[in-house]
Amino acid sequence: MALCGLLRRLPGRRGGRTLATGRPRPGPANVKPLEDVKILDLTRVLAGPFATMNLGDLGAEVIKVERPGSGDDTRTWGPPFVGTESTYFLSVNRNKKSIAIDIKDPSGVKIVKELAAACDVLVENYVPGKLLEMGLGYEDINKVAPHIVYCSITGYGQTGPMSQRAGYDAVASAVSGLMHITGPEDGDPVRPGVAMTDLATGLYAYGAIMAGLLQKYKTGKGLHIDCNLLSSQVACLTQVAANYLIARKEARRWGTAHGSIVPYQAFRTKDGYLVVGAGNDQQFAVVCKILSLPELIDDARFKTNQLRVQNRKELIGILSARFAEGMTTKWLHLFEGSGIPYGPINSMQSVFAEPQALSDSISNFAATHSGKMFVASGKTPIFIERGGKSPYAPKVTELFFKRFRRRSGFLMHLKDCLLSAFS
């Protein structure tokens, strides 16, 4: 059965019971894939919020629980700010509602359990055991919500000598080996320009949650997902890890170059940089013709990729000298239509002015409490809902909690215990 079809048939939560009839419900043709799926989001900073934002983009209702008074740490991360709103926070918290609950207080724990009973998914990124101490561990939630898909995102997993450490992207990228292979060939290790370990972990969690929802749809039962920064980043080492595990070849830094393919790197032009890759001998021949260096095609040093790797220094020296003779626009024009992978190194200004980026609508207007602004909002193969607000301040309303069909007594109890103290 097609994935989209299964997602559209995922049952909603009603009063803590699973509506698994096995029959698709009638609805509009443009129904969102995760419509009626409710996510209780106990995450903060990046990996967890990125996962839940992607679920929200597919139509899920995401309820973000934050600390009373201060909220998610990233609300204060900046500059830049738009009004009082951190652009960092806005980048990973669209399509969410937000409430403030003190989960260290027994009353707050009770509220979270009530909310969990009305949701399909709970996502958290606390140090292992922390929520268990509060009475909100998987077994605790499973007792009141056996249907729930409970996803834990940690730094280093639930067990092991590092499990009790807090996990931050830069530290995990160092421990996982990513930083060891990132940076100039003869220079120091470099932190990647964006938090790739956090983002990769968020995507792994997002995919695991989607699979968990499918399993829940089939069985009516929930499950516990364990996703961590270290394992996610090591999984992303792919061929670098395989080179060591299979051939015992230690990894190293290559700058923009590739350890197993030559040429495949950035070349300096008169006014910028151009990245060009030739993954086979045919592509290498095309590159040589474009650069007016046909003599390199039959040069015994460069006849195969293996030889080009062995004679990297000589070949890159020749190619670099030729690229440095022309402006970036000249090379872009010459490579156009050649079938060779190529592209300029863009600044952020250039990225969002790139014709292909405009064609793909990779940025779009989103409504915020400081007015409309552009946000990065890439398409997915299924569906993206654009423009949902990031939560400005936690609010408690009759309408919001009626969506969960809670009794009026619970609403009054909730209002007594909830603090909405964001400035």
Please give a structural write-up.
The relative contact order is 0.13. The protein has a 6-stranded parallel β-sheet with strand order 7-4-3-8-9-10. Strands 11-12-13 form a 3-stranded antiparallel β-sheet, covered by helices on one side. A two-stranded antiparallel ribbon has the order 1-2. Helix content is 37%, strand content 15%. Helix 2 (47-57) packs across helix 8 (196-219) and helix 8 packs across helix 9. Among the domains are: 38-247, 3-Layer(aba) Sandwich (Rossmann fold), CATH 3.40.50; 264-345, formyl-coa transferase, domain 3, CATH 3.30.1540. The radius of gyration is 25 Å and the shape is elongated. The longest helix has 24 residues, at 196-219. The chain is α/β, with parallel strands linked by helices.
Number of strands: 15
- Give the count of helical stretches: 18
Radius of gyration: 25 Å
Question: Which descriptor suits the 3D outline?
Answer: elongated
- CATH homology-level superfamily of the domain at 38-247: Crotonobetainyl-coa:carnitine coa-transferase, domain 1
Regarding quaternary structure, what we see is single chain
The share of residues in helices is 25-40%
Mean pLDDT: 85
Record the strand order, biggest sheet.
Answer: 7-4-3-8-9-10
What structural category do the secondary elements indicate? Answer: alpha/beta
Share of β-strand residues:
15-25%
Q: What's the CATH topology label of the domain at 38-247?
A: Rossmann fold
Sketch the major β-sheet: 6 strands, parallel
Give the low-pLDDT segments.
1-24, 380-387, 393-400, 407-423
Can you tell me the CATH class of the domain at 38-247? Alpha Beta
First-to-last CA distance: 48 Å
Q: Mind telling me which CATH architecture of the domain at 38-247 this is?
A: 3-Layer(aba) Sandwich
